[in-house]
Design a protein that fits this description.
Elements: H1 8-14, H2 19-36, E1 40-44, H3 49-57, E2 82-89, E3 92-94, H4 99-108, E4 112-113, E5 125-127, H5 134-143
Antiparallel strand pairs: 1-2, 2-3, 2-5, 4-5
Helix pairs in contact: 2-4
The structure holds zinc ion.
Protein name: M15 family metallopeptidase
Pfam family, one: Peptidase_M15_4
Organism: Dongia rigui
Length: about 150
């Protein structure tokens, strides 16, 4: 059983992540709340290849702002190994969070923070790569039977 967070929407999304990081995701939300009082919500977790492809088209062949440089298979979200967060304050979602407080806690728990990326900083994004590149994950994924969903990250 994965620990619960303060937020049922986060719990639902955490339950769809790679089994290896579900507990870590709940720990992240709960530790940030304990240490800072900031209530984070998981807004995105697992994303299928098709959903990723659709997101990639946003700002390219579809209207809107470009939000990703990753096509299907090129994002850790596609393997259930990444999550995005916002802060919930009252009934309001806050997208520019206090990352100076949140990021060090996450990194201390072994998460890689998208805000550290030089080319395309993605501050709401946290991932656990288990030392695997997206290319390596894609190879593992392609070796899976079509029924299997999550790659073995060791
Ligand atoms: Zn993300």
């Amino acid at each position: 059983m994965v620990a619960k967070t303060w937020d049922k929407f986060s719990d639902e999304r955490i339950a769809l992540l790679h089994p290896k990081i579900r507990e870590d995701a709940a720990t992240l939300i709960n530790t940030v709340e304990e240490k800072t009082g900031i209530k984070l919500r998981v807004t995105q977790g697992f994303r299928s290849f098709a959903e990723q492809d659709a997101l990639y088209e946003q700002g390219r062949t579809k209207k809107g702002k470009i939000v990703t440089n990753a096509k299907g298979g090129e994002s850790y979200h596609n393997y259930g190994l990444a999550l995005d967060v916002c802060e919930i304050r009252g009934r309001e979602a806050i997208w520019e969070c206090d990352w100076k407080k949140i990021a060090p806690i996450a990194k201390g728990l072994g998460w890689e923070w998208g805000g550290d990326w030089k080319s395309f900083p993605d501050r709401p994004h946290f991932q656990k790569a288990f030392g695997k590149s997206e290319k390596q994950l894609l190879k593992l994924y392609e070796a899976l039977g079509r029924g299997a969903k999550f790659v073995d990250v060791g």
